[in-house]
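Marked as duplicate of an earlier ticket. Keeping the data here for the record.
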Amino acid sequence: MSKTVTNLEATKFNPSALLSLYELDASSLGGPILRFHDGSSNNYKNITFNGIEYTAFPVFLEGFEYDGKGSLPRPKLRAANINGFVSYYILNGNNLIGAKFSRKRVFSRFIDAVNFDNEINPYGLADPEAAYADDIFFINRKITENKDYVEFELTTALEIDNVKIPNRMVFARICGFKYRDSSCGYTGDPVADRNNKAMTGGAGTYGFTLIPRGEYNESFTYNLGHFVSLTSTLKETLGEKIFYVANQNGIIGIENGPIKSPGKWVADFCSKNIGGCKKRYPSPQVLKFGGFPGVARGPYVI
């Protein structure tokens, strides 16, 4: 229904003002989420829509139109650099390249009552769903930066410089998730080595009785089955927490730690195949394999 009333408003002889509300999401770069509008359509006052406030801020945007020649638009965003406000985020966020930029368009009759005198909407009731679909872009490059303003070029997700398509590689038998990250989801005790040899159990396993001992401490004496964690400094696993299980008794000192004496320890690594995933998620209902088995070649059946 909200889409219908939006279209009805657009076809009126004298519709209410069409507002453009903007959101710049730099959270992926460690920055903020900024919501604003250019101010001109509301006497330079803030606008609240669907309970979210958009600050009046000196910005100018152009180039959203599609030219019909097949090329995608690359809008320009020019924002006032008051007291170095934008430069601060540029300096701390890789020029804001890759930040998500959204444009929401809504007629003023549908914005929240708080925007009007005495908080009474003269048009009737606000409608948080009566807005056109958001236009989504990403900051592709910084064009100009000076003490007065900063100008950016925006682009669609398909045209971001150096973007890979598909963004996630498709493999049939290899999981693309990092072991123990939020996509993988496993957070339990060590399970198996990179060849799927289990830490615990009977024949064919290491047969450990696992005992947690926290972060590796060079002053502590570790015995068979004690397991510790270390934060990796290796390039391929940088920053990841890796668990190691002691493979013998009487291990002590930095020279006998998992890094310098790997033969005395068994690392808990996922094999990145379905077998390794099943060891960590025995129930098939919760298997979190990050590959795509359905793309594997199968026999041709007549």
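See parent ticket for discussion. Residues 64 and 75 are 5 Å apart (CA to CA).
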